[in-house]
Structures are given as C-alpha cells and as structure tokens.
Amino acid sequence: MAMKIRLARGGSKKRPFYRIVAADSRMPRDGRFIEKLGTYNPLLPKDSEERVKMNLERIQHWLDHGAQPTDRIARMLENAGVREKTERNNPKKGAPGKKATERAEERAAKAAAAEEAKNAPAEAPEEAGAEE
C-alpha cells in the first residue's frame, strides 16, 4: 500500500482549512485516511503558531514506514526541521508565456524598423534640389 502524508481540505467555500493526514495514495483527497497528523490554516498570519500544527512523532513514524510527503507537506516539514532542505528546480518559472513572447517580438520588430528609418539617408530632398 503506497502511503502519502498530504493535505485533506475542509472548511467552507473561500475559507480553506486543511487536515494533515496519512492516507493511502489511491484514496481521494478528502476521502478516507488512516490517521490525522495535524492541521493547517492558511488564513492565519505566517508567523502564527496556530497556522501549522503537526504531531511530529507520528509524522516521523509514518516517514520511517515509507510514507511519502507531498511537496507542500515536505516544505512544512523542512520549516519544522524534520527534513533536510532540498534544492528545487523550476526552469520554466522565469520564462515568459506565449503571448508575452509574441509582444516582445513585435516590439523588437517595430524598434528595428524605426531605427532603420532614422538611419536611412534623406535622399528625397537632395534630389529635388538638384533637379531645379
């Protein structure tokens, strides 16, 4: 049985509240779980002690038995000092999207056209004066 330590959502609409639970990975997010390990209330300030409450002994028990924490829970455990910090890599995070790339290309084309027009020699007035 593949065990996960994850968040199970509770609370009403627009007022989230999460339980930190140990559950079988095949169960639904808010479905059956094995044990409640703590709570997470994202509406509280980040420095509040009530924001994240965890039973660290039970979490360590489940980790020792092969349970895998989700990304969010892993971050909470890193902040609590239970796990070592891991290096994260998201190479697409800083890359602009499709529309932004198109707009940048259009701007570059307009700027190049304006620069070309500015640097082009003014031939028409000289020729007109030479013919007269």
TrEMBL record:
Basic and acidic residues composition bias: residue spans: 81-90, 99-118
Residue segments, region Disordered: 79-132
Key words of the record: Ribonucleoprotein, Ribosomal protein
Molecular function as annotated in GO: structural constituent of ribosome
Gene Ontology CC: one annotated term: small ribosomal subunit
An individual GO BP term: translation
Pfam families in the cross-refs: Ribosomal_S16
Entry's family note: Belongs to the bacterial ribosomal protein bS16 family.
Entries under HAMAP family matching the protein: Ribosomal_bS16
Identification of the protein by name: Small ribosomal subunit protein bS16
Species assigned in the record: Roseovarius spongiae
